[in-house]
Amino acid sequence: MHHELKALALTCTLKPSPAPSSSDLIASQVLGELRGHGVGGDSIRVVDFDVRPGVETDMGDGDQWPAIRARVLEADILLLSTPTWLGHPSSIAQRVLERLDAELSETDDEGRPSMYGKVAAVAVVGNEDGAHKIVADCFQALDDIGFTVPAQGCTYWNSEAMKPKDYNDLDEIPEAVAATNKALAANAAHLARVLKHDPYPPRK
């Protein structure tokens, strides 16, 4: 199938490859749904790279963020997938958002911030509560950076409170999660196409 759009999932698990990751699993499920809408894509497990702290596009000294950033710039849709730790997104997810903050001062030839025209979605998994707050925090940050959020642009799974269980260990995708993944993919692909063919107005 020809893929006219590209998606990139930044998986923000704390577990280096090849350890099984629930965040990686839900990201792959969303990418699978996106493929059904003509969107190609793959994922990057950010913890496998030496991403330095900072708010510049390149922190130097072996910083590997620039290679990831190049992939983000190529993508039409960014999926940020994070586990829940202590009710918050992972430290890796926070670092990704901090590094993306540098894009506020990067503009195209018409003065638009570099992430204008790109769609952002969020996936959250956890064996504790916190998904709604994590999505809210991530969406606000991504919107500030210049991404556009689609209707129902998030998916999540939380284990039952006080009964820890990993998404990775489920026998099948829960029906509600599968339906949410489908809606996220359909809306993100639609919005990405709209923005690709009718960009935001120039800022100059």
UniProtKB/TrEMBL annotation:
One of its GO terms (molecular function) is oxidoreductase activity. InterPro entries: Flavoprotein-like_sf, FMN_Rdtase-like_dom. It holds the Pfam family FMN_red. Residues 18-153 form the NADPH-dependent FMN reductase-like domain. It comes from the Bacteria. This is Multimeric flavodoxin WrbA. It comes from Glycomyces sambucus.
